[in-house]
Fold this sequence. Notes:
Elements (H helix, E strand, L loop, with lengths): L12 H8 L3 H8 L7 H13 L6 H7 L3 E7 L6 H16 L4 E7 L3 H14 L6 E5 L5 H12 L3 E5 L10 E3 L3 H15 L4 E6 L6 H17 L3 E6 L6 H17 L3 E5 L3 H11 L9 E5 L3 H8 L5 E4 L2 H18 L12 E3 L4 H7 L11
Parallel strand pairs: 1-2, 1-3, 3-4, 4-5, 6-7, 6-8, 8-9, 9-10
Antiparallel strand pairs: 10-11
Helix pairs in contact: 1-2, 5-13, 6-7, 8-9
Amino acid sequence: MANDRTPGGKATIKDISEKLGISTTTVHRALAGKEGMTEKLRQKILDTAREMGYEINYAAASIKRRTLRIAVVVPQDSGCYFANIWNGVNKCAEEARRLNIDVEMRVCDDEWHEYQILKSIADAGPEEYAGVLAYSYSRMPEVMMQLQRLIALKIKTFVIDDMMAEPEGICCIPAYQTSLGELAAEITATLTPEEGTVIVTEGRADSWVHTEKLQAYKKYLADRKPGLNILTITGYPTSEEADGAIRENILRAFAEHEDVVLYYAQNSLDTQLAVKVFRELDGGRKFMRIGTDLNKYTAQYLRDEELTLVIDQGAYAKGYMGLNALVDSLVKHIEPDPYLNIALDVVYRSNLRFYERTKKLYDNGGTSK
């Protein structure tokens, strides 16, 4: 049995066992994360240990247990939103290795591919996987079924960019779509005159996050600045053909409305496409430009003054905090909040340097280092 006294000498395993009226072996097993007791008893022992100042050496304890495998199932892009989620995951994965955690990176190409990956994990079962961190596209029924299977199999499951009430037991890192829409609208109201045309991109049509964000944006401005004309650009950049159609829609909107006062691109891909179109416009046209997601592209747009500001949705934090909470749940038995809070940031050219130092905007991005 491990030494039962902490470095500070505040409490011992014997002290905890005497206070709870249970054996020192049971306390030791709970602190070491071993099986053989109910989760209710384990949590009671852990809570008591913390109250008494017992410091658990998780790194030492992890050497004695089997390696735990966590699968991360997230899309990948060329240095935009998902790349920074992966950057956060990679950073946390480095730290998790010291706790005998193996993080398996599984890039999904689309929602159907994600379903296949999640099914393979559920088929392998808890003998192979202790936890899963996945991304939520649009709640496709087949994906939801696999998430339900994972929970039923007692594989700890976290989902990025959703706020699910079911299946019971799932943990979420929300997209905060309503707050994002209202934040963008508040900034719009501050930067624009009482009247004029505001152009905003619709985003992905089947994404409830994009849809609700847009609705929140429109509602806020309708209530507080009804003189603004809100013009929506439909379509989502997914291919050269789609990009071409959206580009023409944007150019047509500017041609038909000489009073454009602000353009808001509500996601990373929309932002990149919009800036390319801005370069084709008459250089004398002045309007505010709001982009989304701080990444290597939008950082350069800010430097070059091609964007007025960027609303950052906390992609790096979602990857890091999501995986960290999952590791803490498995190793330290810390019950995570049902919804993890991620800060939303507004980045200008003047404060860009601070965010570049703290948001880990690596050039490569993605699952590789």
